[in-house]
Structure formats: structure tokens, C-alpha cells
TrEMBL record:
Keywords: Allosteric enzyme, ATP-binding, Cytoplasm, Glycolysis, Kinase, Magnesium, Metal-binding, Nucleotide-binding, Transferase. Its main location: cytoplasm. GO terms for cellular component: 6-phosphofructokinase complex. It comes from the Bacteria. This is 6-phosphofructokinase. PANTHER family: ATP-DEPENDENT 6-PHOSPHOFRUCTOKINASE, PHOSPHOFRUCTOKINASE. InterPro entries: ATP_PFK, ATP_PFK_prok-type, Phosphofructokinase_CS, Phosphofructokinase_dom, PKF_sf. Residues 1-269 form the Phosphofructokinase domain.
Length: 313
């Protein structure tokens, strides 16, 4: 997100505009003015941030933003500063708020950013490439112990209700089984894959479990131990990667995407094209009306689920 913040700021300054950064997302937008959550951003304020994960502006969940009166406070804060347009960087929840603000008359442009990569309107979202790489690095490290001790490692990855992150990590690490919300595997099916790996003389097995699946990884481990212990051969261990996946220095892919997304968001404002989400289609930066983005979840490519199975023999 930092590259996108930098790109929005400097592209807007280049046009001679005044730029404010809002700390902690919608929570900062609605905060009383004396809390100083909205601050001027000049070119140097966004210097030295492009290699940092997360966001220098901070982020917060803000359920109160669903309340129209609360949103009105946010709009009043912007009016007081003479702000003409808002760039909103985030995932589904954030863009849902952006769409409502847009319907209420604010000029808003969204930037597709979430490690879940579940947003309609963008093939890939900002942050997911870094999250995949961080998770892969963790799995590579877990494989060392799994292999030495002849264990099956159950690794839970994030992604909310979307299996994209789990699928990409599972495919890229050659997981013996991948459990996704969109492609559930019963404990018996997972046990069969683990057993198969054991019988073929593999030293370990990796099972990737996306957090939105029917069973979390710890529950899957429990059922495997309770009901399939004899057949699986390997000892089991579960690791939940959790927020580690949201850390780490952004990959080159994410930095380049952040630069292009941020600059395009400013272009959109300049052209009066608002109420849209900036995303990627193929190699092109595109815009999609926010109304078409919110309320849905992007499907995963089911052919990759089959590919992962074929390649994991
Ligand atoms: O949407 C990004 C995400 O990291 C999801 O993958 C995960 O389910 C959620 O946020 C975790 O939210 P929190 O940090 O509020 O626990």
C-alpha cells in the first residue's frame, strides 16, 4: 500500500494539487478534527516508504462507517478542508464503504488492495503477491522440520472467504493437498493424500488449508488424528501463518502495481472519472464502476486446483 500512497501523493502534487493523508482509514476520516488524523502530505512525507510493508498511514476496521450519520461526519471533515476527491486503498469492506460514499455524492476512486485477492474488478490486487511470497517462504522453512521428522505439516493461510491465496501457495509449494472454501476436501480425502505420499516414500507432506474452508487447520488435524490416525503414517503438526502474511517488504510486482494503480487513481480524478475501482486486467490498468465490484467475490480458477493435484504426485 505504501507505494500506492506514494504514487497518489506525488502524482497529485505533480498536478499542483494539495494532498492529505488520512490515518487509520475510515476511522480517521470520521474522527473529530482535533485528533489530527487528516494531515498534509508533501513529497518528502512519502519518501523512504516504498520498501515497507503495510501502510504508513495505518489502517483500522470501522464498522460504525455503515451508519449514515457517521459517514456524514467524515464528509464534513473533508468539506472543512476543501477536499474535492478521495482515493480509497483497500479490499472488499473498504470498497463497499467507497461505493456508498460515491452514491452519497463524494468523488471517490478505489484502488484494489487486499491479500485476499477476492475483489471483482481486478485480476490481482495489491499485496497478494507479497503475501504469497511470504507464505511460500514460511512453507519452505516448515518443510525442513517436516522432512527431518517425517511429519505432515498442515499450514493455514489467510484469504477470508476466498481460496486464492491458499491455492497459489499450495500450487507453488507443491502441496500434497489444498483445502479451499471453493474446493473443500473431506478429512478422509486429505488423509488419503497424506497416506499416498507416505506410501510412495515421501519424507513429508504439506497440506495447505485456506482459513475460509469448511474446517480450520486445527480442527482438520483433530479429525485426522481421531478418525484416520492409523492410515496417515506421518505425525501431524499444524501451523497458522496468520498476520505474518501481511508483513514483509513488498515484492517488485507489488511495488510496480502500487505505482501504476496510484498514478491511475489520480488520472481518474483529473478526468472526472470517479465512483470506480482501479485494477488490473491482463497487463492493462483498468477501471470498473464500484457498483459492479461490491457485493461479490471473485471466483478462483478451478483448473488450477486440478493442476495442483496432478503435479503433487
Ligand atoms: O482481508 C485481509 C485479511 O488478512 C484476511 O485474510 C483475514 O481473514 C483478515 O484480514 C484478518 O483480519 P484481522 O487482522 O482484523 O484479524
Amino acid at each position: 500500500m505504501n507505494m500506492a500512497i506514494r504514487a497518489v501523493t506525488r502524482s497529485a502534487l505533480d498536478r499542483g494539487w494539495t494532498v492529505y493523508g488520512i490515518e487509520e482509514g475510515y476511522a480517521g476520516l470520521i474522527a473529530p478534527a482535533d485528533q489530527g488524523k487528516i494531515r498534509r502530505l508533501r513529497a518528502r512525507d512519502v519518501g523512504g516508504i516504498l520498501g515497507q510493508g503495510g501502510t504508513v498511514l495505518g489502517s483500522a476496521r470501522c464498522p460504525e462507517f455503515e451508519d449514515p450519520e457517521v459517514r456524514a461526519r467524515g464528509r464534513a471533515n473533508l468539506e472543512r478542508l476543501g477536499v474535492d476527491a478521495l482515493v480509497v486503498i483497500g479490499g472488499n469492506g473498504t470498497q463497499t464503504g467507497a461505493e456508498v460514499l460515491s452514491r452519497e455524492g463524494l468523488d471517490v476512486v478505489g484502488v484494489a488492495s487486499t491479500i485476499d485477492n477476492d475483489l471483482l474488478g481486478s485480476d490481482v490486487t495489491l499485496g497478494v503477491d507479497t503475501a504469497i511470497n511470504v507464505a511460500l517462504d514460511c512453507v519452505d522453512k516448515l518443510r525442513v522440520t517436516a522432512s527431518s521428522h517425517r511429519r505432515a505439516s498442515l499450514v493455514e493461510v489467510m484469504g477470508r472467504d476466498c481460496g486464492y491465496l491458499g491455492l497459489m501457495v499450495g500450487l507453488a509449494c507443491g502441496a500434497e493437498a489444498i483445502v479451499l472454501p471453493e474446493a473443500d476436501m473431506s478429512p478422509a480425502q486429505v488423509a488419503a493424500r497424506i497416506e499416498d505420499a507416505y506410501q510412495r516414500g515421501k519424507k513429508h507432506a504439506i497440506v495447505i488449508v485456506a482459513e475460509g474452508s469448511a474446517r480450520r487447520a486445527s480442527e482438520l488435524e483433530r479429525v485426522l488424528l481421531d478418525e484416520h490416525c492409523e492410515r496417515i503414517g506421518f505425525e501431524l503438526r499444524t501451523t497458522v501463518l496468520g498476520h505474518i502474511q501481511r508483513g514483509g517488504s513488498p515484492t517488485a510486482t507489488d511495488r510496480l502495481l502500487g505505482a501504476r494503480f496510484g498514478a491511475r487513481a489520480v488520472d481518474c480524478i483529473a478526468r472526472g472519472e470517479t465512483g470506480v475501482l482501479v485494477g488490473l486486467r491482463g497487463r492493462e490498468i483498468v477501471t470498473t464502476p464500484l457498483a459492479q465490484v461490491v457485493g461479490g467475490i471473485k471466483p478462483v480458477d478451478m483448473s488450477l486446483v486440478e493442476l495442483a493435484r496432478v503435479l503433487a504426485v
